[in-house]
User: Fold this.
Amino acid sequence: MSTVVALREPDPETRVALVPEVVAQLARHGLSVTIQSGAGTLALHTDDDFAAAGATVATGGDLARALATTQVLVHVRPLDPERIAALPPGMITLGLTGGVDPVIVEALNAGSITALSFERLPRTSRAQVMDVLSSQAFVAGYRAVLEAAIRLPRFFPLAMTAAGTVPPAKVIVLGVGVAGLQAIATARRLGAKVAANDIRPDSAEEVRSVGAEFIDVGIAPQAGAGGYARDLDAGAAHAQQDVLANHIMDADVLITTASVPGRPAPRLVAAATVAAMRPGSVVVDLAASAGGNVEGSLPGVEARIPSTRGGGEVTLLGLAAAAADLPVDASGLFARNVAQVLRAMVAEDGTLTLNLNDELIHGMCYTHEGRSR
Assistant:
C-alpha cells in the first residue's frame, strides 16, 4: 500500500509537490510514494528519476487503485471539487488551499477528507522548516526583480565607461517579508540603489541589514496575527500612500510584495501614482492574484500605462504565480517542506498517523471527519 501520492498538477502549474531527492528521503523513513506519470516533467524530473528514487510511477487504473488506498495526497495548487470528489473518504490532503472557498470546503466535508493547509501552519520556530509560504515567497521575490530588470530600458548597476557614467537604477520594494527581502537582496546584487518600506515592527532594521534605505512614512509599526502586517485604518492608509507616492514617482522600478494569506492584499499604490512615474519605469505586483497592492494590476497581465510626464509608458506587471516560473528550485523547496510535515506525522512504530495533539498538525487541519475546523 502506498503511503503518499503526488499527482500531476493542473495547467498552468509547473511545480510538483515531491521531487526524487525527497522521495528517497521519505523511503528511508519507511514511507512509500506513488507518483502520477508525468507529474514532474515541467520541473525537469522524469518518471525514471522518480522510479530510481524508489517511487512507484503509475497511470490509469494503477493510479486509481493507488489513490483508493493511499493515506496522504500531497499537492501544490488548491484541489478543485472534481478532484476532491474522486478521493476516498478519510484521505488526508496536504498542500496549499487558497482562501476560504465555501465550495471547496463543502466538497472536502462531503468526502470526509482531512485537509491540511500550509496557509494555516502556525508561525513558530519549529514550523520554519515546513513553511511553504516562505519558501515560495523566497523564489517569487527573486523572480520579481528579474522580471523588472528585463523590462527596464536602463541598466540596474552603476556603470563607469569611457563614454561616461551610467547611474544605477532606483528600486523601491514595498513589503519586507521573505519575498521583499529577497527582492531587495537580488536588486542590490544587480547593482541597483534600493529603498523599501513595511509597517511591521523591526522592518527598518531588516531593510538596513540587507543594505537598503528604509522609507519612513511616519506611521507607528503595526503587527497582526502570525507576524503579518495588520490593515491600517483609512486615514493612516491614505497618509502612507501619500508619503510613498513621492518616493515611487522618483523610482525606476517598483516591486510590491505585501500580502496576508487568505485575505485581500492591502492597496498601497494608486493608479495615479503609477502614471506619474517616469516613462520606461516598471512596476511588478507580486500580490496581483490576491487583489493587488497596485491599483489596476491583474494577475498574468502586463499593462502599458501612459506616463503623465509624457513621451512614453510605464509597464505594470501583475505576476500570477512567480514561483511557478522557476519550477525546478521552487518544487525542490516545496517538497522539502512537505517532507518535514510528513516526518512529523510518523509515529514511533513507523506508521503515518494524523496526530491532532501536535500543535502544528492541529493548526494546519482545515477539515476533518466531515466538519470544518
Summary: The chain is about 35% helix and 15% strand. Residues 15 and 331 are 5 Å apart (CA to CA).
